Structures are given as structure tokens and as C-alpha cells.
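User: Predict the structure for this protein chain, please.
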Amino acid sequence: MVVFGDLVSMPTTKNYYYTHSGLSNVLIGSFAQPVVGDTQGICFDNSNNLLCSYSYVGPTTADPSVIYQCSGLSNTILGSFATPGSDCQGVAFDGSNMITINEGDYFYPFVPHCVYTHSGISTNIIGSFTISGPQYIGGIAYYQGNLLSCGIFVSGVTTIGVIFQHSGISSTYTGSFLSPGTNNFPQDIYVNNEGNLISCDSKNEHIYIHSGISATLTGSFVAPGSDPVGVAIYDYYNILSSGYVKIQNSGTIIPIKLITIEQAESVGDASVRVALNENVYCADLATSESDTYASPVKIQTPHGLKIWRQSGA
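Assistant: Here is the predicted structure, written as C-alpha cells:
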């Protein structure tokens, strides 16, 4: 299975979301955040809708923490609600239910960090627990049944960032490792479909690509804007069987894995609508580089499973 997707990052100071080309620092788009507030973490639900958390929305920190669900990769609001507790620092999705984390207070240890599991995407809480360890908490992620979290320990004027692996969705840690850089603050984490961790650091103003879920890095770059506090991957589609696509009226046939389909959408039995180099074409599917006939190709898109074939095949 081949998975395609683009990194989405969010700086807290620019009030914008940035879309990257794959896992790179090349930007292919941006849009304003749905509201102005203290943004913290982002993820996508199982319909590929953006979920964004705000520690507060309003002019002061006394205003409530809010989760916004947006339509796809946009700032069009589908719904919003206040989170339990206060100072929401991150959001994740386990395939069925949303998970949020609220920060406690370093100076008031009787206010612990608390993780909440919601019923679907709603205010209904079906589980919660507190976590100990870091004095300040960052974001959370979910991968293959287990929660991940990040935060910092403070030693004088130095901060030490740590990423934690949990046993299931619980307060039990199964492992941890230092986040990249020194005097750092990991603000959000996300695991892509290849099992590689992506993290962002607001103090070092970098985005890091990890090898698996480990401290080993395969890449890093300066985050756009400044003070990055959110990272996630917007998946395009999964190829479930191989195939080739021929651009109509051009005679060009290329492997389908080289095509970017930002919003895969069937437009009939004979063609599909694809975005190639940011232009829209109609395309027939062909069985090989030299074939003029199409065979079915199954592609899992954000809009469900699509089976594309040439008319009459």
C-alpha cells in the first residue's frame, strides 16, 4: 500500500496553517486559522477533517479552551465546543474517538495534566486519567493503539524536552526519549501512516522527521512562521492496487503513484478528476505503459473507496 500526504504545520504567532509538499519545507498553500486565539495542537479525524485545539479563545487566558472541527483542510467550521477543564494543549484521534489533553500547573501541583477520551467528536467524556512527569505538557498523538505525549522538564533556565510512549490510552509509560535539540520545547507530535514520528519545537522553531518512533532523525527544517505548535499529515489517498493513468488528449501514460490527487473525485465511468502539477485533467486508466485499455484500480480516498476503470472495461 502506498500512502500519499502533505505535512500541515501551525505557528502560534502567525494565525495561519501552512501546507507543505510532502515532508519538506516547500510550501504549497496556507490559510487563516478558523478563529484568533491561543492555538496549540492539530490532527485529522477519520473523514480527513481538521481538528484544532485552542487553550483559550478570546482576549485573556481566562476564556475557555475550545476544539474546532473544520471541513477537510480548510478553516470552514463544522462545529466547536469547549473542552473539559482548561488550557487544552493538544488533540488526537484514535479512529473513532477524539482525545484531548489539558495542562496542569507547574506551580500548583494539585492541578495535574489530564487526558480525556471523548465519545466520537463531542463533549461526552467516556474516560479520563492524569499523567505525571513533565512540568509542562505539549501535544499528543495516537498510533496503533497507543498514546504518545510530549512535554518538558525545567532545570533553572534550561528546558529538557521528552517524548513519552504510553501503554494503550493510559497513564502508564512504556518508554521515552529526549526530543531533538537543546533547551527545547516539543509542542506537538504526529505519527504518519509509515509509522514515522513528526515533532515540532517552539523554542528551536524546527520541525523534525523521526525514524519510526525514536530519537533518530531522518530530516529537519525551520518551521514556517515562528513558534510552531501544531503538526499533522493530510493524507491524499492509499493505492490498493497498481495501475497506470493516461492523460486524455496527450498520449502521456505515467505510473499512478507519481500523481498527486489532492481531492480524488470520480467524474464518470471513463475518467477521473486528478490534480497533476496543480492543474486538473481528465484521465483514463491503462493496464501498462503501452496499453490503451484500462483495468480497475482501487484507491482509498478521504471520500471512501473509489474503483476507477475505463468505460466498458
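The mean pLDDT is 77.
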